[in-house]
Amino acid sequence: MTLLRKTIPVVAALSLLATTACESVQSAPKQTGGTILGGALGGLAGSQIGSGKGKIVAIVGGTILGALLGSEIGKSLDRADRAAMEKAETQAHGAKVGETIRWNNPDSGNSGTVTALRDGRDTNSGAYCREYRHTVTVQGKNEEAVGTACQQPDGSWKVVN
After folding, report:
1. From the centroid of its chain, how far is CA 160?
2. What pLDDT is recorded for position 118?
3. Closest alpha carbon to 40 in 23, 17, 9, 19
4. Nearest to 132 by CA among 105, 156, 158, 97
5. DSSP 11-51
6. For the whole model, what pTM was predicted?
7. Span 121-135, pLDDT tens digits
8. In 10 A of CB 72, how many CB atoms?
9. For position 78, what pLDDT does the model report?
10. Could you tell me which of 157, 75, 135, 143 has the C-alpha nearest to residue 108?
């Protein structure tokens, strides 16, 4: 019974988020994408904190906070911003660990950086992976996220967390 009581609010919140996302994908795809990515990164960050009941609270709180921040960033990033950011990400795949790749869009005034923090091999697949720090500055506000991407057999890169 206790687990059910804890699960219902989480399922309700996720259902509401999913319904809202479906309605807003067509009208605000950047904001929706930012909300989803921010929520995922926030939940991942929250999962690294605490244990037991505290961990559940941290995951839910991280997901909500990440979704809100991601929504704000996504609302402001346009196609040219995303293209510049993707180009910087591609350059960062081949850059030295610690080297910062900068991007900017003079039309929007938005900018950011991608820095490879460390690299190594995935213990399960043996794939070459790198941990990156992304910073994005939108309308003078800075946001930061850390994630990992692994090189695929065809040479492409896939974000794994």
Report:
1. 11
2. 94
3. 17
4. 97
5. HHHHHHHHHHHHHHHHH-HHHHHHHHHHHHHHHHHHHTS--
6. 0.53
7. 998 889 999 999 999
8. 17
9. 76
10. 75
Q: Is the dihedral of CA 100, 126, 151, 145 positive or negative?
A: negative
Query: Phi-psi category of 122—alpha, beta or left, where left has phi over 0 and alpha has psi -120 to 50?
Result: beta
Q: In whole angstroms, give the CA distance from residue 34 to residue 135.
A: 14
43 within 8 A of 62, measured Cβ to Cβ: yes
Q: What angle do CA 48, 50, 21 make, to 5 degrees?
A: 55
User: Could you identify the residue written with the tokens 């850390």?
Assistant: 146
Residue-wise burial string across 40-52, b where 16 or more C-beta atoms lie within 10 A, e elsewhere: bbbbbbbeeeeee
Q: What is the pLDDT of residues 36-91, one digit of tens each?
A: 666 666 666 656 665 666 666 666 666 776 776 666 666 656 788 888 988 999 89
Beta strands across the sheet bearing 100-104: 100-104, 111-121, 128-138, 141-151, 157-159
Distance, CA of 143 to CA of 59 (rounded, Å): 19
In terms of Cβ atoms closer than 10 Å to its own Cβ (0-12, 13-18, 19+), residue 138 is: buried
The Cα 75–Cα 28 span in angstroms is 7
